Amino acid sequence: MRNLKFYITGIITIVLSGTLFAQIKGSIGVSGEYDSNAYNDSYGGGSVVGTARLDLNTDIDLKLAGMILGADYSGSYSAYLSYLGINQNDHLLKMILWRNLGKDGFVGLGGAYSFQFNAADRSAYDTNNFKVIGETKIYIAQPVLLKADGALGRYQYKNLPKYDFDQSIANLSINIFLPTRSGLTILAGYKKYDFSPLPADSQVPVNITNLSPGCRVSQGLGSNIGLSLECSYLTNQVTTADPYYMPDTLLSEVNEYFDYSGGQVGAKVTLILEPAGKMALWANYISRSYDKLDAYSLPAADNASILTRQSLGTVRLDRETVLGIDYTAPLSDGPNGIDLGAGINYVNNSSNDELYNYKKLLAYAGINYNF
């Protein structure tokens, strides 16, 4: 399977690189990241990760009823420098057939295939994901822009097949642009995962449904400053077949495997620092109130198993605050060239579960060549 992934990636890359009908665009870059609490728990433990990435994209005019074939590839290799021998590969291949729709609009249909494989003890979580995707953007009136996308697919774990699921995804936004450089966006997101658990399987749910309606307000302040405010309601419903349900906590997006409701509020200020680049200052607050997941104590001793934690007799409640600053700067003139990026994030997850009451600092820096 791993060799097949390399072959598929190689074929698509060759096709993208060899086409005579379109110009290849993309970027190549390297970055480093320090995470002061890689496991996101109260015990801490930092890590340093080095990443190399390649992005390619092209549009091929098929000369047929205005149809255009868009092809994209994104790949990265990450090495955990703090833990020798642990690394991770992520690849995404996407092809979509689209055509223009009115002024500045389009409609498209295609497919996407992504996969991840890991070295050392994380290889059990190697994944594959194939999706049929659709996208559209259309001005339904001069100041009103409608965007929508959806996907149907299958998500698979190489060595944990009982967690495989069918997925349905839909996102919708209605954007209203005003002459005062103001904007209002109504957002709605929907995800559903359908599993096939064995009878009396206490680790696998029957299905998960996630809804996230919200809105965003944006405002230009002068010629070089932009402000945006966003809020959304979060609800996640899990249907299970076993009263003692408890999933593998190392799964990707493990929060979605439990019932919760809550909200998210965010703010962002963007500064154009001509000619020195762009800076973004942002803050995000997320609350999650779990319906059926208890809060637990820490193990009685430092060397005791995590399975010895005791219930505190109340449901778990998390309050996550994230503060960030990101900076990008061109190191050369023109659309093609080199740019530098760096940033720092501070995370404070306040939880009544003693293991997940933690703080962390994340810092990164990288350089990209755009072509």
Tell me what you see in this structure.
This is Outer membrane protein beta-barrel domain-containing protein. The protein has 371 residues and is mainly β. The chain has a domain at 1-123: Aspartate Aminotransferase, domain 1 (Alpha-Beta Complex), CATH 3.90.1150. Helices cover 5% and strands 62% of the residues. Strand 16 and strand 17 form a beta hairpin. 9% of the residues are buried.
Strand content: over 45%
Please report the number of helical segments.
1
Write the CATH architecture name of the domain at 1-123: Alpha-Beta Complex
Percentage of residues in helical conformation: under 10%
> What is the CATH top level name of the domain at 1-123?
Alpha Beta
User: Quick one: overall form?
Assistant: globular
- Total count of strands: 17
C-alpha-based Rg, rounded: 23 Å
Question: If you average the pLDDT, what whole number results?
Answer: 91
* Helix-and-strand structural type: mainly beta
Q: Low-confidence spans: pLDDT under 50, at least 5 residues? A: none
Q: Secondary-structure element sequence?
A: HEEEEEEEEEEEEEEEEE
- CATH fold type of the domain at 1-123: Aspartate Aminotransferase, domain 1
Major sheet size, sense and barrel closure: 17 strands, antiparallel
Alpha carbon gap, first and last residue: 32 Å
